[in-house]
Amino acid sequence: MTIDSTESALSATTSCGAPTAAVALFRSLGDPARLAILRRLAEGEARVTDLVSCVGLAQSTVSAHLACLRDCGLITSRPQGRATLHSLARPELLDLLASAEQLLAATGDAVDLCPTYGSNSIGPEESTR
């Protein structure tokens, strides 16, 4: 992605200046199950049953996550016989995931220690209760 296309993609912003499309993208990537599904699809096409065994969730839950990813334009689906094969829609997603892994390696996984979003934190939803 070039700087011009990045600026264009980030031009629509919320009232605080956060890019709305970027917020939606990172929210779609922020769910552990959806991220696991995307990592599996990075290896190649998969059926729902393949993804169910990979992420360990119910078929209906995996299907709901696939619908979210498809609605966000991150995956595509095509019928094959009685099954449907799912795959990544854009190769740039692999670059994004690789960049995230490099960033995590460079920061020593400090994000995991973040008091708001880290693995031992109380999430924003829970902190308001």
Descriptive overview:
- The protein is mainly α.
- It has a single domain, classed as Winged helix-like DNA-binding domain superfamily/Winged helix DNA-binding domain (Arc Repressor Mutant, subunit A, Orthogonal Bundle), CATH 1.10.10.
- The protein has seven helices and two strands.
- It has a two-stranded antiparallel ribbon with strand order 1-2.
- The longest helix is centred in the last third of the chain and has 15 residues, at 92-106.
- It is globular.
- Mean pLDDT is 84; it is low at 1-7.
The amount of beta strand, in percent, is 5-15%
Kindly provide the radius of gyration, computed on alpha-carbon positions and rounded to a whole number of angstroms. Answer: 16 Å
**SSE-based structural type:** mainly alpha
Number of strands: 2
Biggest sheet record:
2 strands, antiparallel
- SSE topology string: HHHHHEEHH
Integer average pLDDT: 84
Weakly predicted, low-confidence segments: 1-7
**CATH 4th-level superfamily:** Winged helix-like DNA-binding domain superfamily/Winged helix DNA-binding domain
Tally of separate domains? 1
Based on Cα principal axes, name the global outline: globular
Q: Write the CATH fold name.
A: Arc Repressor Mutant, subunit A
- Percent of residues in helices comes to 40-55%
Q: Please name the CATH architecture.
A: Orthogonal Bundle
How far from one another are the termini? 40 Å
The spatial strand order of the largest sheet comes to 1-2
Indicate the CATH class. Mainly Alpha
Number of helices: 7
GO molecular function, one term: DNA binding
Pfam families: HTH_5
Keywords: DNA-binding, Transcription, Transcription regulation
Domain HTH arsR-type: 14-108
